[in-house]
């Protein structure tokens, strides 16, 4: 549900401490995927493992931030309150 709040951030503003970090974590996950793809194409184990680990870390942390965002925003808008029930 935090992802839906994040996508709706132009209509309903999110707190300042949530504005930049999800973009950074998406970039971290994308860089990890680039390493992973390079490792798979070149048949190198270590770039593949590093890329998977980096992508997994970036995406997991992103999901954690989305939970935090939803917890901060669930009372901020009537639409978000309806999602609880």
Describe this structure in words.
By secondary structure, the chain is mainly alpha-helical. The longest helix has 29 residues. The chain is elongated, with a radius of gyration of 16 Å.
Furnish the topology, listing elements before pairings.
Elements: H1 2-7, H2 21-42, H3 45-73, H4 78-82
Helix pairs in contact: 2-3
Summarize the structure.
This protein is mainly α.
What proportion of the residues form beta strands (DSSP E)? under 5%
Order of helices and strands: HHHH
Oligomer: single chain
- What radius of gyration results from the CA coordinates? 16 Å
Amount of helix: over 70%
Unreliable stretches: none
The domain count comes to 1
- Please give the largest β-sheet: none
What coarse outline follows from CA principal-axis ratios?
elongated
**Tally of alpha and pi helices:** 4
Counted beta strands: 0
* Overall pLDDT level: 92
Could you give the distance between the termini? Answer: 13 Å
Find the structural class using helix and strand composition: mainly alpha
């Amino acid at each position: 549900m935090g992802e839906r709040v994040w996508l709706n951030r132009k209509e309903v503003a999110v707190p300042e401490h949530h504005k930049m970090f999800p973009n950074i974590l998406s970039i971290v996950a994308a860089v990890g995927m680039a390493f992973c793809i390079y490792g798979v194409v070149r048949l190198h184990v270590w770039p593949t493992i590093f890329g998977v680990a980096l992508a997994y870390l970036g995406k997991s942390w992103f999901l954690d931030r989305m939970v935090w965002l939803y917890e901060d925003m669930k009372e901020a808008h009537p639409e978000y309150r309806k999602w609880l029930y």
